[in-house]
Amino acid sequence: ESAFNSCASFTSIEIPGSVTNISFGVFEFCTSLKEVVLKEGIEYIEDWAFWGCTKLESVVIPDSLKGFDKGAFLLKNGLKISLNNVYYAGTQADWESYDTEGLPVVKYIH
Questions:
Q1: DSSP letter string over 3-52?
Q2: pTM over cut 0.85
C-alpha cells in the first residue's frame, strides 16, 4: 500500500503482468504521472490506486482485468480523474460490466 505515494518524478509507468493487484493508494498523489500501462496479467485495481494523480491522461487496461474499485481513479472529493484516453484490451461487454461511471468512453484495442 502507498508504496509510491507522492512520488513526483514519475511521468509514465508500465506495470508488468506479474503484479496481479494494484494496491490501495499505491500511486496516490503522483502529481506528474500522465500515462499508465497495465500489462496482461493484472486482475484488480483497488480504491485510491491513482487518487490525486492530477495529470493522468492515459491508461491502458489489459483484458486480464477482472474489476476495479469505484474509487480507483478518483481525483479528490469524489471527482474522477480527467482521463482523455482509456484503452481496454477486453470486450465492450466486459467493460460495461464494471462500474465505470465518470470515466470517459473507452477505446477498445484488440
A1: TTTT--S-SEEEE-TT--EE-TTTTTT-TT--EEEEPTT--EE-TTTTTT
A2: no
